[in-house]
Amino acid sequence: MESAYVVHKTLLNEHTDSVNALSFSPCGRYLASGSSDRSICIWKVSSGRFIFRVVFDSQINALLWHSIEKDTLICGCEDGAVFYLSDFSPVSLPTGFAGREVRLGVKDTPVFCLDLEPNMRLLAIGIGNEVHITKDGCLPSYTATTKLPHPQYKPQIEGRDCRIRPRSIHFYERGKRLIVSYLNHGVMYEARYTNVNSD
Q1: What is the largest CA-CA distance in the chain?
Q2: How far apart are CA 63 and CA 33, in angstroms?
Q3: Secondary structure E strands in 36-135
Q4: Alpha carbons 12 and 39: distance in angstroms, whole number
Q5: What Cα–Cα distance (Å) separates residue 138 from each residue in 13, 111, 125, 133?
Q6: N or C, fewer C-beta in 10 Å, the chain?
Q7: Are 117 and 174 within 8 A, CB to CB?
Q8: What element of type H or E holds 98?
Q9: Would you report the helix, strand and coil content of the chain in percent, each value rounded to 5?
Q10: Using an 8 Å Cβ cutoff, are 113 and 82 in contact?
């Protein structure tokens, strides 16, 4: 049987460990890849050409191109760090990105997923067993967040990791609701909230 998938480009020789996250830029010209080798690579989609690499202190678990702020990539790391990398432009190389950290007051807890609600300018972060919602574009000070409770149900499945960890987050209804799926649980939680504190 013929495959529905056709190899378009093969991205080789830049990452030295598993690729954990991929994200296409809103314009569709760039692909960001994040890896256990603690780096983010930027690729040109049309040619598959490697453009740029940023190296961090921890492995990269989540990537999200910002849908409003031009040339801005948001990344989540294994050590709990969340960064906005902005001003990416091939013409600005080799300097590449300018960065700023979103400080949640949580350390050494992995970030698993991210989502951005552009209309209300909210960022949702799945970190450890929690989901934090904060204002998008926070400056490098500790940010006020709304922390959503995690599900209380813990399945006991022999031979499986049953820790509660958010793996996918999606805003809908223009940011009034958030749906979170958890590892080994399927879709477990839908959240409705009214606001996010901002200071």
Answers
A1: 58
A2: 8
A3: 39-44, 50-55, 60-65, 73-77, 82-86, 98-102, 111-117, 122-127, 130-135
A4: 14
A5: 35, 17, 13, 12
A6: N
A7: yes
A8: strand 98-102
A9: 0, 45, 55
A10: no
How many other CB atoms are found less than 10 A from the CB of residue 162?
15
pTM for the predicted model, two decimal places: 0.82
In percent, the amount of the chain with pLDDT more than 70 equals 74
49-58: burial string, b at 16+ Cβ within 10 Å, e else: ebbbebebeb
Position 183, amino acid: L
Report pLDDT digits (tens) over 116-156: 998 888 999 999 888 998 888 655 555 767 888 777 766 66
Task: Say what the alpha-carbon torsion angle 166, 147, 68, 100 is, to the nearest 10 degrees.
Answer: -100
Six token digits for residue 75: 């990344």
CA separation (Å) from 134 to 54, 65, 114, 146, 159? 25, 17, 11, 7, 36
pLDDT of residue 114: 96
**Beta strands across the sheet bearing 166-172:** 166-172, 177-182, 186-192
Nearest Cα neighbor of 52 from 98, 99, 96, 100 is 96
